[in-house]
Each structure stands twice: as structure tokens, then as C-alpha cells.
Amino acid sequence: MTRRNTYHHGDLRQAVLAAALGVIAAEGPGALSLRDLARRAGVSHAAPAHHFGDRTGLLTAVAAQGYGLLADALAGVGGLRERGVRYVRFATEHPAHFQVMFQPELLRADDPDLVAAKDRASAELRTGVTGLPDVPDPRTAGIAAWSLAHGFATLLLSRNLDGPLTDRDPEELFRALTALTFGTGAPGGTGTPEADDGPDDSPTR
Q1: At 12, is the pLDDT very low, low, confident or very high (cuts 50, 70, 90)?
Q2: In this predicted structure, what is the pLDDT of residue 132?
């Protein structure tokens, strides 16, 4: 029995997604080809199109999966500093998802699975939002915190922090940056790294 005939429906879909994540991590989303992914996954040429429709559908599925993983990573975590750390950790553990999630031009914005996953991530990001202490505009402060976490993660993934980090643990450095940016209240677990109404293409929309 060939590999093409051994997949169950869900396994085949996951196999194509896994192959796509490998390509994205190595070469970026622009390198994706449904035909090439079918070859990598050992399935028929028609299989990726059957499950995802087209390249946009596949990238949308990657983003939806990523938002679900982000929601899982943030579940039950409180405080500005540790939510930011989890955000950075998610980016380093799932770099291919992270590349795709925040490029709305690659995605089908009204896809139900994507919308549901983003909503779940948003709910986790907003859990316990009461605003940072002594901050007159929590929304702006939240955007600043999200920018700090997202920017740090992006610089880390692109290896632009290799020099400044030297032997320092990235998560510890991020904790220190959070304290510098938001004051001594941040390490104590007050506040969160999210805006209560962020950009349309962010998980905090």
C-alpha cells in the first residue's frame, strides 16, 4: 500500500500543513506551491486543492492554526511581563506561523476558521484587562506593549539581536525591557501586553 493510500482525511490535511510550515520556515510563504507540497507530503496533486482550495486558502489555514496555538500559549497567563514572554516564546517556537499570521494580504480575512481562531486569541489577550496603573490611555499603552513584544520577537527571529544578546537569555532580556518601558509595576503582574482595541489585522482587534 502506497503512502498516498494510507492517509485518513484529517491526517492528509495535517501532512500538507506540516509540509507548508517547513517550506515557510526555510524559504518564506512566497515559496509555497500546492503541487510541490503534494510531492513533499506524498499525496496526489489534487489533495492540497481539495482541502484548501488554493494557495490563499492554505496560508489562511496556517494562520488560523497559528492563532489557535497563540491562544493556547496565553491561556491562564496574567500580567504584562509574562504575557509578553509567552508571546515571544510562541514566535520562536512557531516561526512559520508567526510569519504568516500578521500578513493580512496573504489571507482570506472572512474565513470562518480564521475569524474564530483570531477571536479566541483576542479573548485570551484581553483576559483580565483592567489597564496599566496610572496610565490615562490604556488602549495606547496596550498598543505600545504589543509593539514591544511583537517587535522583539521579530528582531529575535531575524537574528538582529544576536549581537546585543551575547549569552543572555532572550526571555530574561524581554522581562527587563518590559520593566524599563512600563516601570516597576510591570514585573508585578499588573496589566497585559494587549490593546483593548488594536489594529484590524492584529489579534487584539
Answers
A1: confident
A2: 58
Rounded to the nearest integer, the mean pLDDT of the chain is 81
Name the grid cell of 102: 500578521
Q: What is the pLDDT of residues 174-204, one digit of tens each?
A: 999 988 887 654 444 444 334 333 334 554 4
Q: How far apart are CA 156 and CA 170, in angstroms?
A: 8
The tens digit of pLDDT for each residue in 123-134 reads 777 664 445 566
Cβ-contact 48, 58 below 8 angstroms = yes
Cβ neighbours around 149 below 10 Å, total: 24
For residue 9, give the C-alpha cell: 482525511
What confidence category does residue 2 fall into, taking pLDDT thresholds of 50, 70 and 90? very low
CA distance 81 to 173: 11
33-37 contacts: CB < 8 A, separation 24 or more?
34/58
* Closest listed residue to residue 131, CA positions, set 188, 179, 191: 191
Over the chain, what HEC string results?
CCHHHCCCHHHHHHHHHHHHHHHHHHHCHHHCCHHHHHHHHCCCCCHHHHHHCCHHHHHHHHHHHHHHHHHHHHCCCCCHHHHHHHHHHHHHHCHHHHHHHCCHHHCCCCCHHHHHHHHHHHHHHHCCCCCCCCCCCHHHHHHHHHHHHHHHHHHHHCCCCHHHHCCCCHHHHHHHHHHHHHCCCCCCCCCCCCCCCCCCCCCCC
